[in-house]
């Protein structure tokens, strides 16, 4: 068998790549015809598949299934699809594959149908003024959608417009913009607007433009300059912290930048530092101000030399300024100034108790307005004790009245007054001076013994001492130390008593011999340490008590009582007399009020036309109420002779039923007017009756019930108190009413 070599593919079925130009307008356009070598009697069926046929984009390509011709049915865009890869198939009429599928590649050929595009419409760049030639500022950049492997996408850059200066150039290939010549000056041209062009086909194809904006950055190449060489201003004297005026400058550099901001300095004409100058941050002008009050009388004109420069140093290439210095002339205007007390406060001294009219001092002020004729007058602005009098023209102060210690107007021994000085200008001005007057202490008070009494044990040694003290209304050095001693007029006291110093304000009184208990009065002399010293004789009342074992008084009550011996006899008499007088006045007032009430009540009884005896009713039985008023017939008391005696004796209505009758009936009095005797006889008969209880014993009655709608009898006079009633007249009714008179009278 003959060896079989590799199988060879028929050339007719191998299809080379097919190129077609984009934007081809004659459609349909025959691209290629494919053909299979395996012809069948019935023919071959051709087909293609892939993008542009049965895949997106659909319908771009088609094939004649009997002839194998492939057609272009739509315009192509290389920027969307630069090539299509299809599969070609050959089948018999029964659908059986005759050939293996083969590749059919269609390449879209580029055309220059896209202009270049800049990445932005406006490009921004910055460069400092005065930059050297060749200083690059920025780079512009453009793109082209055409095939980068063809001239359709080869770009070239150029500057179409930059004014007449020609300060910049652009690299045609890279698009970098640089300076080409010196002389960039921000103060001349601050911003450059350039028109940049990009063209494809190496500069011969489609074009597009953009704008390049270049800002010049400022440098301090211009010094500040005064607008003129001299400035004139005015200011009032005594005005501090006020603005006098402005000096104006001009700077060509960028406003608001450190290259523009000015700094001012006063070089000459102000050795005392009376002025300051600062920069107005908004206008860059110099503001001259007064730092210290000016005095027209001392200096009325100033001529200042002021310099100006920038906060940031000038560039070495900057020219020097011919107007960096200026002269400022300031005139000080004279105004009315207030008087001035050169010594404020003024301190003087006056002796305590100085008599009225004593000169104190002359307190005057001076007027700073020496070039004006003015007169000063004075007045007291503050004199709380009304102690001073002031000469309104000379300013001399004198005492008006005596001022002594202690006083509520003194503060630590000082008296404070305010003096007002006023000129006669229009309007007038005034000043206040403080006058501090020290009231010098005078020794005009002697020490006073405190306390003036005490209790000691009458035995020498332990317990036989008493601590003495003293006070002085004077102030140091006219007070303590105090000196205590027994009166030399009574030398016998030194045999029983002694006084020794304890401290500067106290001394110790000691018993030298045993003394009997009782009160003792010791005359003492107390002296202070003032100049001259003051001495006073005083009486010390000492109560001597029985001594216990520990040196204390045995009878504390006696000691406490006798401690009051310190009160002088005169004072005790005054106290006792006052107490007695008060008691007498109180007794007289009470007697007068009591007599007045008694006379009032007796007058009421005498003025009454009714007989009080008509109101004596018999209420010895319960339950009758208002209708049961079986009263005694008072006519029997008035005229008993008109009624014959009864056949049977009178019965006691309050007696029990089983009780016996009285042994004898009551007889009316022989004299109808002697009613008291008649009543007394009836009472005596009742008292002697043994069958009934007396009237003044408690009687037992039946239960009346839980209450009554009627008010109690006690409510009739509930509005009156016992203090309003006078029951002394009960004693005049006889011995039977003496008990009531004792209870209520």
TrEMBL record:
Topology of this chain in the membrane: Single-pass type I membrane protein
InterPro entries: Cadherin (IPR039808), Cadherin-like_dom (IPR002126), Cadherin-like_sf (IPR015919), Cadherin_CS (IPR020894), Cadherin_Y-type_LIR (IPR000233), Catenin-bd_sf (IPR027397)
MF annotations from Gene Ontology: beta-catenin binding; cadherin binding; calcium ion binding
Compartments where located: Cell membrane
Disordered, as annotated region: 643-676
Biased composition, class Pro residues, residue ranges: 662-671
Entry's Gene Ontology BP terms: adherens junction organization; calcium-dependent cell-cell adhesion via plasma membrane cell adhesion molecules; cell migration; cell morphogenesis; cell-cell adhesion mediated by cadherin; cell-cell junction assembly; homophilic cell adhesion via plasma membrane adhesion molecules
Keywords tagged on the record: Calcium, Cell adhesion, Cell membrane, Cleavage on pair of basic residues, Glycoprotein, Membrane, Metal-binding, Repeat, Signal, Transmembrane, Transmembrane helix
Keyword Membrane assigned: yes
A single GO cellular-component term on record: catenin complex
Keyword Cell membrane annotated: yes
Entries under Pfam families matching the protein: CADH_Y-type_LIR, Cadherin
Signal peptide location: none
SMART domains: CA
Domain (Cadherin) ranges: 12-118, 119-226, 236-341, 342-449
Membrane-crossing residue ranges in chain numbering: 569-593
Xref: PANTHER family: CADHERIN-15, CADHERIN-23
Function in brief: Cadherins are calcium-dependent cell adhesion proteins. They preferentially interact with themselves in a homophilic manner in connecting cells; cadherins may thus contribute to the sorting of heterogeneous cell types. M-cadherin is part of the myogenic program and may provide a trigger for terminal muscle differentiation.
Protein name: Cadherin-15
